[in-house]
Specification:
Layout: E1 18-20, H1 34-45, H2 51-63, E2 67-72, E3 77-80, H3 82-88, H4 92-95, H5 100-103, H6 108-121, E4 125-131, E5 140-151, E6 156-165, H7 167-195, H8 199-214, E7 218-227, E8 230-239, H9 244-247, H10 259-262, E9 268-270, E10 297-304, E11 310-318, H11 326-394, H12 401-429, E12 438-441, H13 442-452, E13 460-463, E14 469-472, H14 474-491, E15 498-505, E16 509-516, H15 548-558, E17 563-567, E18 573-580
Length: 591
């Protein structure tokens, strides 16, 4: 940008009585420009020093890698170093006496404005200049320090400049900023994908993020769907342009261009889709239909689920050529992989919601069935029991002992069927009907359970010390203990039955056990005892419905615990179950 004459002689436009400004210091330069600033100071002194001193200054002037120059009030170059000549792309001597607009036609206007500012205000400043010189085939950026050069009387007679090429630094800063914005976008998209379970919102978020990451004019997500004719594709979301731009067109088909994406075969990235041999091979349009948004740059990425099935595809277009880079492709492919997982999760969530709704409907139907069973079925059973008693009374003088035994057996079967119906009702409600948790002293609860049971003479129930106080629903816990202790007494099959109840702290859970000294249970039956309607003893020997342990397990599982048995044949049995230390209130919305 600026110039020098040979042997240290200066051009005439600046008078010999010039000295550096001493008023306000120049705007601070970057660190690497401090040495160049000192050199420029020396160059200013050279304007009124001897030829020998000028030669010395020339040596310093040429030694620096920064571009240095001096311009007079007519905006002509009077001194410069080789570094500045190289920046401008002209020989050093070709600069001398020529104006800035002549030397730098593309950037002359901006540089002239900066020089006029320094000349008019007499103040130093730093400005950034971007453009092309004869040495650059692409735009570059420079940081230029402009400092007024003053005569001894203080008059500004020229401007000294220090020129630093900051193109690489600017490009690095731009890349870092772009990477930062990309990472921020990916971070936001990742958080949204991880948290969003609404499928429609999820797919829209994916399409919006991928459109921005790719630099596309518009992006769309199409679902794979199967119809009677085979595969077709449904527009699900659009980003970058109004949906109306696509609403008038039929859904895309499995054409040569679309097939690799919808089949999950590969990513397709084209600088110009219209030049690809796969383009325009399918009727009736043989390309894009009339009125379609112009597409030259094309990028399509399949979205594949964890099971390997193709959910659909992300498609991006731009009217300019060569928009989609390899980096953009990698970003969209990564986002598509995250999207596939998130969409799988959303599908699972939606399926779970559907199952929950179906379960709620099933539970309501079960409640209705239980109501019918407990009321409508028990009424005729009672009638049968009454009729059998009346028949027996009518035949009291005529009935044989065998007939009386049969009538008694009939009534016992009626009682057993009533108990079975009651058990089914209890089982249907176990673990589903929720009450507000309360403070439960387990020791006191066990005392109440024992009081409710008919304990045979000679039997003993031993409750260990150290039972906890829980925040729990009292009734379900009471049902569990009633069934387990009642079973232990019922199936002990000995006059000196002994039942031991213990508790063990496991942190968030308590483990309880009910141990008996009965005949025990062989290992092959440890799972069978929990099945509904299953008993190990003939019902004519020990009256039972086979529902009690099923109710225990159902209640315990509903609390997030587990129930199991440890026993050997002839060595008694110990039934265990775990229960939470603190239950959430079903009405609070906690889970």
């Amino acid at each position: 940008m600026h110039s020098q004459q040979g042997k240290g002689e200066l051009a005439d436009p600046i008078p010999p009585s010039v000295e550096p400004a001493t008023a306000e210091p120049a705007t601070p330069l970057p660190r690497r420009g401090e040495a160049e600033a000192a050199l420029l100071d020396q160059a200013r002194h050279a304007l009124h020093e001897s030829p020998a001193d000028c030669a010395l200054i020339d040596a310093f002037f040429q030694a620096t890698t920064a571009g240095l120059g001096v311009i007079d009030r007519d905006l002509r170059v009077v001194r410069l170093n080789q570094a500045l000549a190289d920046i401008n792309g002209l020989p050093l001597e070709a600069h001398l006496g020529r104006t800035i607009p002549e030397l730098l036609p593309e950037m002359g206007e901006a540089i002239v404005a900066h020089l006029r500012r320094a000349l008019d205000t007499g103040e130093a400043f730093t400005a950034e200049v971007t453009g092309r010189t004869r040495a650059s085939d692409r735009p570059r950026s420079w940081l230029v320090n402009y400092a007024p050069v003053r005569a001894k009387d203080g008059v500004v007679v020229g401007v000294g400049t220090i020129v630093l090429d900051i193109t690489e630094r600017k490009e690095t800063e731009d890349r870092l900023q772009e990477e930062g914005e990309t990472l921020e976008l990916l971070n936001r998209a990742g958080k949204q994908l991880a948290a969003e379970l609404d499928l429609e919102k999820l797919v829209q978020a994916v399409t919006d993020a991928a459109t921005r990451l790719s630099g596309a004019q518009f992006g769309a997500f199409f679902y794979n769907v199967t119809n009677a004719e085979g595969k077709s594709y449904m527009l699900y979301t659009i980003s970058g342009v109004p949906r109306e731009h696509f609403s008038g067109f039929p859904m895309p088909r499995n054409t040569d261009v679309f097939a690799p994406t919808f089949n999950g075969e590969d990513v397709v990235r084209l600088d110009d889709v219209t030049q690809d041999p796969r383009y325009g091979n399918n009727p009736p349009y043989h390309g894009m239909p009339r009125g379609h948004l112009p597409v030259v740059s094309y990028l399509a990425v399949p979205v594949v689920s964890r099971s390997g099935s193709v959910i659909g595809g992300l498609f991006f277009g731009h009217p300019a050529r060569g928009v989609f880079t390899e980096r953009a492709e990698k970003l969209v492919v990564g986002l598509a992989a995250q999207a596939a997982i998130a969409m799988d999760n959303a599908h699972l969530f939606r399926r779970a919601q559907q199952l929950i709704e179906a379960l709620e409907r099933s539970n309501k139907e079960l409640d209705r069935f239980a109501y019918v069973a407990s009321h409508d079925l028990k009424a005729p059973l009672r009638a049968i029991a009454n009729l059998s008693q009346w028949i027996e009374d009518d035949l009291i003088d005529k009935a044989s002992p065998e007939t009386r035994q049969h009538m008694e057996l009939l009534r016992s079967r009626v009682v057993r069927l009533e108990s079975l119906i009651d058990g089914i009702l209890r089982y249907s409600r176990a673990g589903r009907v929720r009450d507000k948790p309360e403070i439960v002293d387990v020791r006191k609860l066990l005392d109440d359970v024992v009081a409710l049971l008919t304990v045979p003479e000679g039997a003993q129930i031993d409750v260990a010390a150290g039972m906890p106080t829980l925040l729990a629903e009292r009734v379900p816990l009471e049902q569990v203990f009633l069934n387990l202790i009642g079973n232990a007494l019922k199936y002990a099959d000995r006059p000196d039955a002994r039942v031991e109840v213990r508790g063990r702290d496991l942190g968030e859970l308590w483990e309880f056990s009910v141990k008996d000294n009965g005949p025990g249970i062989a290992p092959q039956f440890h799972q069978k005892v929990w099945e509904i309607f299953q008993t190990l003893n003939p019902r004519d020997n020990i009256e039972g419905t086979g529902i009690g342990l099923s109710i225990v397990q159902k209640i315990v599982l509903s609390k997030g615990g587990r129930a199991w048995v440890e026993s050997e044949k002839g060595a008694g049995a110990t039934f265990f179950f775990t229960w939470p230390r603190s239950e959430s209130d079903p009405g609070s919305g906690e889970r």
